[in-house]
Design brief:
With 720 residues, the chain is an alpha/beta fold. The protein has four domains: 341 residues, TIM Barrel (Alpha-Beta Barrel), CATH 3.20.20; 146 residues, no CATH class; 70 residues, Nuclear Transport Factor 2, Chain: A (Roll); 90 residues, Archaeosine Trna-guanine Transglycosylase, Chain: A, domain 4. It has 27 helices and 29 strands. The chain has a six-stranded mixed sheet with strand order 25-29-28-27-24-26. Strands 4-11-10-9 form a four-stranded parallel sheet. Strands 17-16-15-19 form a four-stranded mixed sheet, sandwiched between helices. Helix 6 crosses helix 7 and helix 12 runs antiparallel to helix 14. The longest helix has 29 residues. The protein is globular and about 95 Å long. The N terminus is likely disordered. Bound molecules: guanine.
């Protein structure tokens, strides 16, 4: 019979030599990412939880973590090993993996935490790195200076400076080994920023954010959030970020949503020793429990009473197992949420289950509303922009509306910005009709009425009220506006006039007349329109011609080209004269053809987007006026209205492959336009401005600059 200790899960194979130390992004959702760290002891898939293993006290055997929980990496402490003669000898002789009997990735800490707990440590900066190299760790940690939240600014500053001073000697001693470069700075936001910027300049493989254990112990989650937001935007995107000492699963969703890749946890064992159970929404005492708050494989078949009756060792063991079960399960849930594009929604859900987390999450939501004032507010506004710029506006699936804050999900904000910056009204916009009261699809509810109005006048702008903003009729099937999963109550109330005016002003409309029309009351709304615009013939028996339908379809084409290809609507207006539309059996536009028959694009039913053809890409390419971009400039979240699709200039080595339709990989991008954003349609050009392909951008501008592995542009068509 095999046991957990005997290794029924095979040992990992080393990653390819040329990839060792690299961090590859496999999938992202805003700032959240699923990645892979390549090591000699196999890949470490992120986000990951590295259980803390004390070589002297093992609550759960590392081999069991590998076999039973499938844990790919753990963290132990080189200072403890160094200090104990017997451990040190064995580690030097057999290596750290043998010492703790674990085949996966071993990360080692340096003794900094011990200096925080016990005062100074006697080991030297280079000495602890050399020791870690000698015992064969996969990722070492330099001896940083722990900056406590209660330190004076001067002390924190010294800690940051000393840590930076030690960076280069540590890396020299590491001689190619992967090293953690911790970010310090206490609760001094500018020093966090300085620490991140300075540490980034050195060749570290991973950046842990340090000095946060007391902040977490005191449940000061708003400050924890500020620590993350003052550090992370200043770190290179090709290096994983580790929250040092963070192992409570209730913090995972929010931290992952902001881009944290690694956690480490002694919490599973520490809480177990204290007779406490972890859950994704907090911690529960065993004492007084009649039923489990959450059952896990480790707890099945037992009752709290039975566990209370166990001897100390068995009780601690079963609670530690449960705590690890819960942590791994929450991490898995987060990974799936990143895959599904719902990590922010999960963070929102979890924030509703704990007051301190709620405070942090609500503050995060105020960022979208504050205007720049003090230096501090300016900092958080920039951090907010940093979150937004990684978000994809156009995607499938709707918005599950679960709270007030659902309206502020970053990708929803980005979708609104895209609409506000790129949509242009086709009329003067003096008269505005706003339909409200029902969820979509609105074409089935008032589509024929709108067509009749549109065919008779272009002087009225028609929009629909949605819980996340007003939507121009020409984009009535646009995701996420048209795909909100929420209570019908969200649509019931008449929108406030002030809110409508603000929304319209965001779309550059300052109408003289705004009419609000309840879709639940068709005859009344007809009467109201006729009263206001007596010249209009609105009754069903007024015949609709093909030309009436075409008017709307052209408007839709212009609006989509403006939003998704960033094409100037005045160009589209001219170019679409005489165009034709191919329809689906249900009468929706399938293909858009220019007047000479060239098929340029197809509207996407799934998300209200637009798919360009290769011919369409060449057609749009001919309108470009901007010069070839020369760098990776990334200023503000500016969609640079109507300058065309952003260009991605690639290395000549990659050109023949892209022409054949192959993707562009990181490392081959030489420059990009400043309005490039992940998920957007872009054009790939060579250094002579020749279009060689078109597709979807997979990364932020900084990501394009920093990453050296993975797909940068998913090519739809190569162009020869
Ligand atoms: N473990 C928890 N916090 C820290 C930190 O700030 N530095 C190091 N090296 N280890 C830690």
């Amino acid at each position: 019979m095999t046991t957990h200790l005997e290794g029924h899960r095979p040992a990992p194979e080393s990653c390819r030599e040329q990839d060792i130390g690299r961090f590859e992004i496999l999938h992202s959702d805003g700032r959240a990412r699923l990645g892979k760290i390549h090591t000699r002891h196999g890949p470490l898939h992120t986000p990951a939880l590295l259980p803390v293993v004390n070589p002297n006290i093992r609550t759960i055997e590392p081999r069991e973590m590998w076999n039973r929980w499938g844990i790919e990496g753990l963290i132990t402490n080189s200072y403890i090993i160094w200090k104990h003669e017997e451990l040190s000898q064995k580690a030097k002789q057999d290596g750290v993996h043998q010492l703790i009997n674990y085949p996966g990735v071993v990360v080692c800490d340096s003794g900094t935490f011990q200096s925080y707990i016990y005062g100074d440590v006697e080991v030297k900066v280079e000495e602890i790195i050399r020791f870690q190299k000698e015992i064969g760790v996969d990722v070492a940690t330099m001896l940083d200076v722990f900056t406590r939240p209660d330190m004076s600014r001067e002390e924190v500053k010294k800690g940051v400076e000393l840590t930076v001073e030690r960076a280069q000697p540590s890396l020299l001693a590491a001689d190619g080994m992967m090293v953690n470069g911790p970010i310090q700075g206490g609760l001094e936001w500018d020093l966090r920023e300085l620490s991140a910027t300075s540490m980034s300049e050195h060749g570290f493989s991973i950046h842990p954010i340090g000095g946060i254990v007391p902040v977490m112990e005191q449940q000061r989650y708003l400050e924890l959030l500020k620590v993350m937001l003052s550090s992370m935007p200043h770190l290179p995107q090709n290096r994983p970020v580790h929250l040092f000492g963070c192992g409570h699963p209730m913090l995972f969703p929010m931290a992952i949503a902001l881009g944290v890749d690694l956690f480490d946890s002694a919490a599973y064992a520490l809480f177990a020793r204290d007779d406490r159970l972890l859950t994704p929404w907090g911690t529960v005492k065993l004492e007084g429990l009649e039923h489990w708050p959450l059952t896990t494989p480790s707890l099945f078949g037992t009752t709290p009473e039975q566990v209370r009756a166990m001897d100390d060792g068995s009780r601690c063991r079963i609670l530690a197992e449960h705590n690890l079960d819960v942590s791994i399960a929450e991490l898995d849930r987060c990974r799936q949420a990143v895959t599904d594009g719902t990590i922010w929604e999960l963070a929102e859900t979890r924030s509703q289950q704990h007051p301190a987390l709620r405070e942090a999450f609500l503050w995060l939501n105020t960022l979208s509303k504050s205007s720049e004032k003090t230096d501090d507010e300016n900092r958080w506004n920039k951090a907010h922009e940093w979150i937004l710029e990684a978000n994809v506006a156009q995607r499938g699936g709707g918005v599950r509306f679960i709270s007030h804050e659902s309206n502020n999900r970053p990708w929803v904000e980005v979708a609104r910005k895209l609409l506000h910056q790129r949509w242009k009204a086709s009329s003067e916009g003096n008269n505005v009709l706003i339909f409200y009261g029902r969820s979509g699809p609105w074409r089935e509810k008032v589509g024929s009425l709108v067509r009749r109005i549109r065919a008779q006048t272009s002087d009225i702008e028609i929009l629909v009220h949605t819980p996340i903003g007003l939507l121009p009729w020409a984009l009535e099937d646009l995701n996420p506006f048209a795909h909100i999963q929420g209570s019908s109550m969200l649509y019931r109330e008449e929108p406030k006039l002030e809110w409508c005016k603000r929304e319209l002003s965001n779309m550059n409309l300052e109408p003289e007349k705004i009419m609000l029309l309840d879709m639940n009351n068709k005859s009344e709304l007809m009467d109201a329109i006729i009263l206001e615009f007596p010249e209009l013939q609105l009754h069903e028996d007024h015949e609709q011609s093909d030309e009436d339908i075409r008017t709307i379809e052209i408007e839709q084409g212009i609006a989509r080209l403006a939003l998704f290809a960033n094409l100037d609507p005045s160009i589209a207006v001219q170019e679409l004269v005489g165009c034709t539309f191919i329809h689906t059996r249900t009468g929706r536009v399938k293909n858009i053809l220019l007047n000479d028959g060239r098929h340029i694009a197809s509207p996407r039913m799934r998300d209200g987007g637009l798919s360009m053809t290769a011919i369409g890409a060449e057609w749009i390419h001919s309108f470009r006026k901007e010069p070839l971009p020369e760098e990776f400039e990334n200023e503000v979240l500016e969609m640079n209205t109507h300058k065309g699709p952003p260009w991605v200039v690639i290395d000549s080595d990659a050109v023949p492959f892209v022409k054949e339709g192959r993707n562009v990989f990181h490392g081959f991008v030489k420059a990009v336009d400043s309005w490039l954003r992940p998920g957007t349609y872009c054009h790939v050009v060579d250094e002579d401005c020749q279009l060689v392909g078109h597709g979807t951008c997979m990364s932020t501008i900084n990501g394009m600059k920093d990453h050296n592995k993975g797909v940068a542009i998913k090519i739809r068509n190569g162009i020869k």
